[in-house]
Structure formats: C-alpha cells, structure tokens
C-alpha cells in the first residue's frame, strides 16, 4: 500500500506538547469545568457530560475563549493535516518529487529538475547517512525493510542531483552528491546499472578535482572522499552563490531585497529616511517630522525582520539573514542558516520539511560541522522545528468593536 511509507507521526509529535501545555493552563484556572477530575468521577458522569463541559471550555457562553490560542489553532492544524496542507516526511512525496524532476531532466531543464530533487530530499525520511551509534530503534512494522526503502529513495534523489551537477560542470557538488548516493546504496550489488553510473560519474568528478579515487571504490574509500570534500576543498572556492537580481531602489541584505528609503537612511535611526526626524514632547509623545519633500509612493522606512543589530558583532546583512523566515516555496531553494541560494544540499532537518542547509563548497557548511564530521542543526531551528508545522494553520480572529 502506497500509504504505508507515510509517517504521519512526524507531524503529530507536536500534539502531546500542546496538550500538556493546555493541561497546565487548565490547572492554573482552577479547572472550573472539571476537565481534569479523576477518571472514576468522569465515568460516572458519562461521556456526554464531559463533552458538554469540554465545549463550554472551548466555546463559553461569553463568547471569549478561555483556552489557550494554541488549542484553537490545533483544530485548524488537525483539519489541515487531514486535507494535506501540512507537510511531513514521506517516501511517497519524495518519490513524486523525484519523478517530477526526472521529467525536467529529460527536457534538459536541469535547474528546475534540481529544485524538485532538492524538494524531494526535504520530504525524504532518511535523506542522509546515519552513523550506527546515532540510529534510532524502529518502532514500526517491518522496520528494517522500511529503512532500506527510505534510504534507497534518498539515494536515488542524491544520485539524480549528482547527474544535474555533472551536466552543469559543478564538480564538487557532483562528487558530494554521488558519494552520498553510494553510501546510502550500501546494500545494492556493485554490478547494478545505478551503481555503475554513480561510480563512473564520481570518478569523472574526482578527476576534475584532482582527487585519486580507487576503481571500484570501497566503503572506506567513500568515507575518505566524504571527509576530503568536507575539509580539503580550498577556501578560495568556499563561497559559491548565484547572482541575485537587485531591483532599482533596493538594498540586498543576505538574500533579502529591502526597499531603500527616499533620501537614503537616517544615521540616527537606520530604518527611516534621512529626510525624516524623530522628535518628542511631553504633550504629544514621540512623532516623526519631515525635513524634506515627499510624494505619494516614496519609501519612508524599511527594515529586515527582527530589526538591525546594535551590538556591532554582526553586520547588517548577516543580521537580516539571521532574522528572516523562509517562506514555504523558498525552503528547498535557500539555506535556512545563511539564506544563500543552495548550490548543493549539505544536510536537511531529519524531523521536518522546512530546513535545508548549504553543502560544499560553502563556508556556511563548514561552520555547522562538528569535528567528528556530523552536521549540527542550528539550535534556533531545533526550537522552532515542531511549532513551525502549525504556522500555516493560524487563522485571523474576528474582533468585535
């Protein structure tokens, strides 16, 4: 069954945490509806009575909810999850992305094909090799065969990406993806067509990089190549970013275009135009006064999400990139850490479909590597990973005057 490879628990892990927070909220209110009474008392009253009290908690007669906003949002979350609007790790979705990418690859539209393969890696359940000591025990039926199928799907995506990079003469990216594909294909016989093509492509890429790879390569050879790519690509080639078209009248901060205010930026308050001045008085509080002439359509102020750094330890462009949140259609195209355009994928979050990170050759990639060679997901993403699922479910609330 095609649905057997969909692990909906990847998304549903958020629910217990929200419910636990709601229980604490009910306790802080004194449990006026008696929702947390012992089970014996609840059974005596019957399920209809409990449901009535639960509805009174969610939709009180006063019309003003006393539950937390998270619980109100959770209902939308459940609805969106059932309708397919919430994405989670899924081999079926990863396979669909790969097949779609293959169509563009056959048409020689390599850039669009790469976008679909990258999207597939975000959906894949085992997108990167896992060390034996980091392996989580399988709690599902047919765990080992399922893991092999998950690894094979990810291997095909990496292999197809390596073919894209090969045709675009991106040798470091090609070697990186082909190496990952072969590591994930560890159970496949060496004589299969897929393995022979990957090895031939990897050999060609390594020859362009000046790396001598044995033929045929063993598992230890692949580990050595993997380590060499991580550590030994020269720094002069470490930053590879495609040009971002900059519209007239915009400044680029990271990969974010921000409109420039008319007359330039104000040194005293960087977000506003230098043609404006902030003043204050005891009677009127703070207010803005125009020192120059403005017309309709002029930009008066602009700033990146999160504002500007005042510490002096981070440049404005880095601060802008660090504070911005990628939109869903950007998450397979840009690095979640530095917001540079992804030229290869170094890692994806194993728990969500929202975060992909730079691969080699990239300074960003090196910054997130542990000395043992494992990629370290930034702490800020670990904090936002699960709640990020719920953002699309937020509905505007009507406010009565």
Automatic annotation (TrEMBL):
Keyword S-adenosyl-L-methionine on entry: yes
Molecular function in Gene Ontology: histone deacetylase binding; methyltransferase activity
Transmembrane segments: none
GO cellular component, one term: nucleus
Domain of life of the source: Eukaryota
Any single GO BP term: methylation
Record flagged with keyword Transmembrane helix: no
Keyword entries, A-Z: Methyltransferase, S-adenosyl-L-methionine, Transferase
InterPro entries reported for this sequence: SET-MYND_domain_protein, TPR-like_helical_dom_sf
Identification of the protein by name: SET and MYND domain-containing protein 4
């Amino acid at each position: 069954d095609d649905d057997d490879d969909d692990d909906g628990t990847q998304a549903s892990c958020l629910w217990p945490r929200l419910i636990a927070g709601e229980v604490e909220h009910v306790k802080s209110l004194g449990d006026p509806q008696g929702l947390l009474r012992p089970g014996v008392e609840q059974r005596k009253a019957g399920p209809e009575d409990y449901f009535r009290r639960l509805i009174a908690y969610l939709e009180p007669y006063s019309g003003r909810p006393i539950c937390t906003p998270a619980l109100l949002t959770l209902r939308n979350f459940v609805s969106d999850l059932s309708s397919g609007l919430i994405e989670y790790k899924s081999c079926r979705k990863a396979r669909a992305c790969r097949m779609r990418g293959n169509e563009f690859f056959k048409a020689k539209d390599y850039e669009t094909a790469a976008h679909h393969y990258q999207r597939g890696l975000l959906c894949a359940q085992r997108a990167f090799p896992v060390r034996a000591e980091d392996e989580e025990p399988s709690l599902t039926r047919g765990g080992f065969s399922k893991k092999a199928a998950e690894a094979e799907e990810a291997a095909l995506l990496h292999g197809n990406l390596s073919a894209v990079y090969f045709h675009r003469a991106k040798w470091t990216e090609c070697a990186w993806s082909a190496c990952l594909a072969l590591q994930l294909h560890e159970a496949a016989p060496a004589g299969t067509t897929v393995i022979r093509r990957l090895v031939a492509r990897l050999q060609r890429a390594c020859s362009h990089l000046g790396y001598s790879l044995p033929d045929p390569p063993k598992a230890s050879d692949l580990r050595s190549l993997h380590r060499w790519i991580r550590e030994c690509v020269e720094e002069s080639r470490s930053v590879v970013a495609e040009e971002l078209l900059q519209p007239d009248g915009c400044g680029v901060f990271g990969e974010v275009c921000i409109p420039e205010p008319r007359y330039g930026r104000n040194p005293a308050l960087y977000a506003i135009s230098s043609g404006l001045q902030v003043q204050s008085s005891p009677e009127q509080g703070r207010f803005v006064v125009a020192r120059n002439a403005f017309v309709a359509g002029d930009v008066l102020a602009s700033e990146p999400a999160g504002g500007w750094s005042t510490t002096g330890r981070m440049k404005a462009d880095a601060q802008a990139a660090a504070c911005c949140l990628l939109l869903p259609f950007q998450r397979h195209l840009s690095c979640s850490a530095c917001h540079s355009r992804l030229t290869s994928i170094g890692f994806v979050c194993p728990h969500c479909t929202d975060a992909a990170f730079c691969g080699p050759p990239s300074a960003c990639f090196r910054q997130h590597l542990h000395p043992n060679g494992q990629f370290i997901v930034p702490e800020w993403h670990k904090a936002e990973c699960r709640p990020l699922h719920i953002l699309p479910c937020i509905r505007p609330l009507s406010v009565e005057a």
